[in-house]
Amino acid sequence: MSQLLGAGEAAVVTRVCELLVPGSAAARPDRYLAATLPGLSPADEDAVHAAIGVMAGVADAPSLARLAGSAAFDRFRQLAIEAGYGDHAPPGRRGSDRADVLVVGAGGGAIAAVLAARGADVLLLDSGPGRACFVSTVDEESIGPPTASGPARAERAPASDVAKFHERTGLLGAAGPFGPADLEPWYERPVPASGARVRRRHDVRRVLVDTSGPRPKATGVAYTCDGDDGVLLAPVVVLAAGPLATPRILLQTHETAEIDAPSARLTGRTLGLRPARLVYGLHARAPARHAGAGFAAEPAALPDPVAFAAGLVDTGHRPLWGGRLAEVVRGHPGWTGVRVLVTDDNTAVAGLGVEGEVVVGKRFSAAERRRLAGALEFAVERLRAAGARDVVWSGLFAAHPQGGAPMGDDPARSVVGPDGRSHDVDGLYVADASLLPAVLSVAPELTVRALAAKVAEAIR
């Protein structure tokens, strides 16, 4: 038992988790929590102990029901679910460190479910998005990492966007250049209930590659979990960690395995960011959604005062401060938000930092700057027409990163093939937004899900 979790606390954890998720006590949620505590911040650790104190008086379902909806209840429910349904390694219960397929990243949930439904032993590794640093040249406005700004409208990729796939990477469909008809069937593929094993907090560093044969082939992954290094083995590895983490893993894999092909050198060099900003009008009516030439505008939720103030910039795109900042924040919550998103040209570059983090560099072209300026001008005019007494806006952020490991039939212009299979490493696949050869002018989630279904079909 960890010194961070006393015997009495362990008993409370086990008892309450069993009430929340029957059967979870056998998974030893107390040991799962004890293993997790050393990695938490002092504040989070204190919150865990406080939740245990709140739950100490729970003896049965009725007494637990009275706490439903509380922070302690929610924390314990999540703990019971992770312990009961995860693959976290309680004594005598941990699944094998071998699998038929390793899926890396929470974005791989759908493909993991499809492959598990076919009878494969699938292990899904969820480590979160990882660290990323965004940099840009000093002569232009900087761009920040992705940030939450309200739900995006789910749409299928427009034909004009899909047409760029063949232009960029030579991607072919059933009857020539890849087009909407080649994508359409995959949108409707159902996702079965997941039978995949899950392990959390596994930060995958690279794919293990056997280079002794005629072609390199994947054999598993190397990871870090709670400060300890380890490996997991499988003949098939699917990267679905997102367009920032997936290129990082590929870059580290290529470097370690000494793979130096044109497709490998392209990794991370075709990243699109879909740069966006939030524009606010004081006491304005909410404008309707608009799709313009190279940009889109849509209603956005107003952040809390701290996030609202932190994101604001002045007319020179420098952080807002002083009297003007105080004046603007005094108007909260009377501001109406609009999010403007610009379609960029996949010219950002994702590389490796000195500590293994992703470093994203971006230089905006003249055409991209015109789109950014036009989108801002449109939003300001639209909000003033809607009655805004004042208008302010945030700095740029990456709304929907895409690309970095594009799919295509030409290895000189793509990282993976049309089925997501690596051009350079057998058994290695990509199944997330990294696949997209060109930035979509709509939220990419539906199209990414369709492409993941296409990749799943190729893994047999």
Summarize the structure in words.
The protein is of the alpha/beta class. The chain contains 14 helices and 23 strands. Strands 4, 13, 14, 15, 16, 17, 20 and 21 form an eight-stranded mixed β-sheet that branches. Strands 7-2-1-11-23 form a five-stranded parallel β-sheet, with helices on one face. It has a three-stranded mixed β-sheet with strand order 3-19-18, with helices on one face. α1 crosses α5 and α8 crosses α14.
Number of helices: 14
Strand content: 15-25%
| Helix percentage range | 25-40%
Terminal Cα separation, in Å?
43 Å
Shape: globular
Specify the structural class. Answer: alpha/beta
Radius of gyration, whole Å: 24 Å
- Main β-sheet description: 8 strands, mixed
Number of strands: 23
Name the poorly predicted regions.
89-94
Arithmetic mean pLDDT: 89
Layout of helices and strands:
Elements: H1 7-20, H2 29-36, H3 42-55, H4 61-65, H5 71-85, E1 101-104, H6 109-117, E2 122-126, E3 132-136, E4 143-144, H7 159-169, E5 172-173, E6 176-177, H8 180-187, E7 197-200, E8 203-210, E9 217-225, E10 228-233, E11 236-239, H9 245-257, H10 262-265, E12 271-272, E13 275-282, E14 290-291, E15 295-300, H11 305-311, E16 312-313, H12 322-330, E17 335-342, E18 349-352, E19 358-362, H13 366-385, E20 391-394, E21 396-398, E22 402-403, E23 428-430, H14 445-458
Helix pairs in contact: 1-3, 1-5, 3-5, 6-14, 8-14
What would the keywords be for this entry?
460 residues; alpha/beta; eight-stranded mixed sheet; five-stranded parallel sheet; 14 helices
Brief digest:
With 460 residues, the chain is α/β, with parallel strands linked by helices. Helices cover 33% and strands 22% of the residues.
